[in-house]
Design a protein that fits this description.
Strands 1-2-9-6-11-4-3 form a seven-stranded mixed beta sheet. The protein is of the alpha+beta class. It contains eight helices and 13 strands. The chain is 35% helix and 20% strand.
């Protein structure tokens, strides 16, 4: 079983209807799919790989002193004295930093800022195209999802890029690369390592690898798309496994609602279904999510204060 791989360029040709259907299937049945021929130049993707790998090389010593490494070292030291040593379930084996329009970015390598700024603009445009496809497949008016995220233009949606590396781990049985969770926000666009795997999704009770595909962008739907679609699209549990012989690179961009945006199940002219989710302010949802990220998602929807 393999994650769907979809040629995004075919939306512009005679195979548009088939491509729309494949994307709808990816959203409904998988919650994850991979886009190829998405319009982002390969030359830019190669530069992104280069600057992010170089950036990690400059940060690698810092990871060796990080909390996950310290905790694992302590656990291994104590293991001989404890027959029931338990895996670390409250940390991730991950070096990570976040890029936003208004926060501090790494100064080195020197070309990092220019390259990642260009990349983020391309990803932002791709996210908005994907949301318009979702609008069409759901029977919404064009721009509905984007308008929901911006409070009909009153607020700026959040767009952040998480640059992660998952270095080789000496004890795969003791720590996760990234613990299983669903994503809180809207549309997530991942440029994953095309050599080192590890990303898995939970489908029909089984963990399935998200196979590396060169220069593909992996799309997944977050909790807010589940709500806006009234459950037709589901946010999906996913995780990253540790590896012993590879340094996995992962560059995930998140197109999320503004914290001030009101989120509620959307409707179309043919939709008479009962709303399955409350109406709430996204910032209130995030207050719940940060405390319950690695727990079942359904109680999060129940806990958020409706408006």
């Amino acid at each position: 079983m393999a994650i769907p791989v979809i040629d995004f360029s075919k939306l512009e040709g005679k195979e548009r209807a088939e491509t729309l259907a494949r994307i709808a299937n990816g959203c409904q049945e998988w919650g994850f799919f991979q886009l190829v021929n998405h319009g982002i130049p390969v030359e830019l993707l190669e530069r992104v790989k280069k600057v992010c790998s170089e950036c990690y090389r400059l940060r690698a010593e810092g990871f060796k002193a990080s909390k996950p490494v310290q905790l694992l070292n302590k656990l291994v030291e104590e293991e001989s004295d404890a027959a029931d040593a338990k895996p670390l379930d409250n940390v991730d084996w991950e070096d990570v930093f976040l890029l936003q329009d208004d926060n501090e970015w790494p100064a080195n390598p020197p070309e990092f800022r220019e390259t990642m700024k260009e990349y983020r603009e391309e990803l932002r445009k791709l996210a908005e195209k994907v949301m318009e496809v979702m609008d069409e497949n759901l029977g919404f008016e064009k721009g509905s999802i984007r308008n929901s995220f911006s409070g009909n233009g009153e607020h700026q949606p959040f767009f952040g890029t998480k640059v992660s590396h998952y270095p080789p781990c000496p004890r795969l049985d003791m720590v996760n690369g990234l613990r299983a969770h669903t994503d809180a926000g809207g549309v997530i666009l991942l440029f994953q390592d095309d050599q080192v795997g590890g990303l898995q999704i939970l489908k029909d009770g089984q963990w399935i690898d998200v196979q590396p595909v060169a220069n593909a962008i992996v799309i997944n739907t977050g909790d807010q798309i589940e709500v806006l679609s009234n459950g037709r699209y589901k946010s999906v549990w996913h995780r990253v496994l540790t590896t012993s012989d590879g340094n996995r690179r992962s560059i995930a961009s998140f197109y999320n609602p503004s914290l001030k945006a009101t989120i509620a199940p959307g409707t179309n002219k043919d939709d008479s279904a009962t709303a399955l989710y409350p109406k709430y302010v996204f910032g209130d949802y995030m207050d719940v999510y940060v405390k319950q990220k690695f727990l079942a998602k359904e109680p999060r929807f129940a806990a958020v204060t409706a408006v």
